[in-house]
Amino acid sequence: MDEQYVVSTWHYVLAKHAKAMCALERELGDKHGLGPSEFEVLDRIVHHDRKLRIQELCDEVHLSQSALSRVVARLEKAELVCRGVCDSDRRGVFVSITEEGRARHLAALPTQRAVLAEIFADAPALIG
Amino acid sequence: MDEQYVVSTWHYVLAKHAKAMCALERELGDKHGLGPSEFEVLDRIVHHDRKLRIQELCDEVHLSQSALSRVVARLEKAELVCRGVCDSDRRGVFVSITEEGRARHLAALPTQRAVLAEIFADAPALIG
DNA sequence: TTGCATTAGATGCGACTGCATGTAATGTTT
DNA sequence: AAACATTACATGCAGTCGCATCTAATGCAA
What we know:
- Two copies of one chain form a homodimer.
- Chain A is built from five helices and three strands.
- By secondary structure, the first copy, chain A, is mainly alpha-helical.
- In chain A, strands 1-3-2 form a three-stranded antiparallel beta sheet.
- Chain A binds chain B through residues 1, 3, 5-10, 12-20, 62, 113, 116-117, 120-128, and chain B through 1, 3, 5-10, 12-18, 20, 62, 113, 116-117, 120-128.
- Chains A, B: It comes from Nonomuraea glycinis.
């Protein structure tokens, strides 16, 4: 593993990340009133198609537990998800998506896909 | 360009970026008192080996102009760089690295490289 | 049961970020 | 030259983040 190659890869990741995050923030925000983190959380719930523990979400979105807690709070305030206690462990919190949340996610999905498609149009084979 | 492939690439970028940024923040911060943005700015100046306009740096590090202005302010306060007016265009600001800044960068470089090497150890061919 | 360590999630706090805007220098038009 | 647009950088501000810490529930040992 050549050092210069590692550094190039890192710069590639930095560039794509910055460009994509910036575009997603703009597009999702303007068109759908969602931040990238909000979208990602909705997306994960829809993908699993069930209510999830906060901790399960933590493993999937790249946020600290505290940041995730606040994203969920914002989503709940916007009535896109709701929180419910977990009966088997009353410390836990289940997060489930509302109808409005599902609709908002569905509307935002093409926007996200379009942004990613444009930015990764030139992407070389990458996943091993 | 398959959509699922684009999404996978995006998730790969997100994961590597989060992991690397988190590790760099910890390692560079603890061992050298530098944040990732601070290191990157020092690194760019060393790489060019000359004083740079703020705007030139803007093109290379993925920060807004305002964020970069503040990074430079922090670095100047720490005496790792100094700002000087540009004679040919007195709106402009030159940023040059100090001896201390050069030393700090040199000390931090192996730390950064080690972090990246570990995180991208499994990286497949990526740059076209 | 009682006492202590652990775990889930919420929250205070300080740091960094981007956007909008401010200030000053430059360029352009008439 | 005067007036206006543009450019370079700095700064007020609000938003999000991670860390440390708090509260409450759980687990485990004596």
